[in-house]
Amino acid sequence: MLNHATESSTIKIPNNHINYIELYANDLQEIKTFYSNAFNWSFTDYGSTYTAFSNSGLEGGFELKKGAIQNGALVILHHDNLEAIKKKIVECGGTISVDIFSFPGGKRFQFIDPSGNELAVWCSL
How much is the pTM? Predict the structure, then answer.
């Protein structure tokens, strides 16, 4: 998951901006080898099911997923007040697909927009 705890204490991340992207991978070692060799990306592992990447222009990560991958990218926005933006998303016609949960360094939730796209919103702790 996102790990901006130290970064966000020194850099103010703007609300409502795309801040992070998550992708799925069936084999994390294989995906790390591919992107580090092909594009010179760097990786930091967070357990056995997640690896974050950097040196790509936009930070992100790969989550281990078993089975077929469909819609393999999750765009993640930042907002300081998850409750407020969650309420606004619902008022504007969005649907919450994953309620607020915590992870190392922050909290987030996921939503479906009126066209069926799933995105997430996060904030640091």
Answer: 0.77
